[in-house]
Amino acid sequence: MDEPEEPCRLPEGLRWYALHTRSRHERKVAAELGRFARVYLPEYRALSRRKDRRQELLRPLFPGYLFVRAALEPALRLQILQAPGVVRLVGVRQRPVPVPDEVVASLELLLAASPDARPRGRWRPGERVQVMSGPLRGVVGVVEHGARGRRIVVAVELLGRAVSASLESGDLAPCLD
């Protein structure tokens, strides 16, 4: 009998990797790598305040970083690292560490479902949960109770960064590791 799949378990195959870019080169790197690999550059809407006008801009959620999905065979790894604007693949001791698929999927869902998503500083320790219903269904993150109500935080631990958004409603379930 097949066991139900755990919501936080990584599937086999291609992996997501965090890629460090030169400052303000995220879009250029995404365009270049997008020619031969799947790239995800999470962005949020922010107001730009100039002296004479205000305008809404798309800004990188994690400045200096983006995600690339690849099977890091040596030739492809070299091609990624040689792309203009790429600094390095994020990892430990010069070995890239994959970002769990659930993190990238959760970021995609969170940014699509929550217009107030924005960057947040370093996260506080909390229980990892998955939203089981509502517009954020499938998002895996950490629940935070703040002065403005309940928020869910999706943390990319490898980068030491997080994103938070308002949690309208929904049933939360513990995320099994």
Keywords:
177 residues; alpha+beta; Alpha-Beta Plaits; 2 domains; 6-stranded antiparallel β-sheet; 5-stranded antiparallel β-sheet; 3 helices; 15 strands; disordered N terminus
Q: Percent range for helical residues? A: 10-25%
Q: Report strand order across the widest sheet.
A: 10-14-13-12-11-15
The count of DSSP E runs of length 2 or more, i.e. the number of strands, is: 15
**How far apart are the first and last residues' alpha carbons, in Å?**
21 Å
- The rough form would be described as globular
CATH topology of the largest domain: Alpha-Beta Plaits
Q: Low-confidence spans: pLDDT under 50, at least 5 residues?
A: 3-12, 121-125
Overview of the molecule:
16% of the residues lie in helices and 40% in strands. The chain has helices spanning 26-33, 74-81, 101-113, and strands at residues 15-21, 38-40, 43-49, 54-60, 65-70, 86-89, 91-92, 95-96, 98-99, 118-120, 128-131, 140-146, 149-156, 161-166, 172-174. The strands form four sheets. It has a six-stranded antiparallel β-sheet with strand order 10-14-13-12-11-15. Strands 1, 2, 5, 6 and 9 form a five-stranded antiparallel β-sheet that branches. A hairpin with a 4-residue loop joins strand 3 and strand 4 (54-60). The longest helix has 13 residues, at 101-113.
Short précis:
This protein folds into 2 domains: 15-99, 2-Layer Sandwich (Alpha-Beta Plaits), CATH 3.30.70; 101-174, no CATH class. Helix content is 16%, strand content 40%.
